[in-house]
Write a structure and sequence with these properties.
By secondary structure, this protein is of the alpha/beta class. About 55% of the residues lie in helices and about 15% in strands. It starts with 6 loop residues before the first strand and ends with a strand. About 35% of the residues are buried.
């Protein structure tokens, strides 16, 4: 039996789920059913969260996820990555770094920008792969 590969959600996945996108929900349920717990950087939640009373679908999705914080070490790694990649999107950086740390599939609506960051990480960046949502 093979181990289930970790999955990291970016903001696009959370927005799609909040908008009741069938493909996003189908992928999320399938991963949960297989025994996985999707990972979401806290920065991603901050980017999409506006009003929990009006974002019931987002609340529902996050209930099945593990939201990971960012310590100083990760913050520095993200900052160095962004500087080297000549970009400024901290949230994309958090998604890329967490994806690489976990050797995860990154469920993203932004494969170009996340892919650029993974490429910038060289051979380490190849530990993560992209799944367009």
């Amino acid at each position: 039996m093979s181990a289930l590969r970790p999955v990291v959600y970016d903001a696009g996945m959370l927005i799609a789920a909040d908008r009741s996108d069938v493909r996003a929900w189908r992928a999320h349920r399938a991963y949960l059913t297989a025994g996985g717990v999707p990972q979401v950087p806290a920065a991603v939640v901050a980017q999409v969260w506006r009003d929990g009373a009006r974002q019931a679908r987002l609340v529902q999705l996050l209930t099945g996820c593990e939201v990971s914080g960012m310590g100083e070490g990760m913050a520095r790694e993200i900052g160095e990555l962004l500087g080297g990649a000549k970009t400024t999107d901290t949230v994309d950086g958090a998604v890329a770094v967490l994806g690489v740390r976990l050797g995860a599939v990154v469920a993203t609506s932004d494969p170009v920008d996340i892919g650029h960051l993974l490429d910038r990480m060289g051979s380490r960046g190849k530990r993560a792969s992209l799944q367009h949502v």
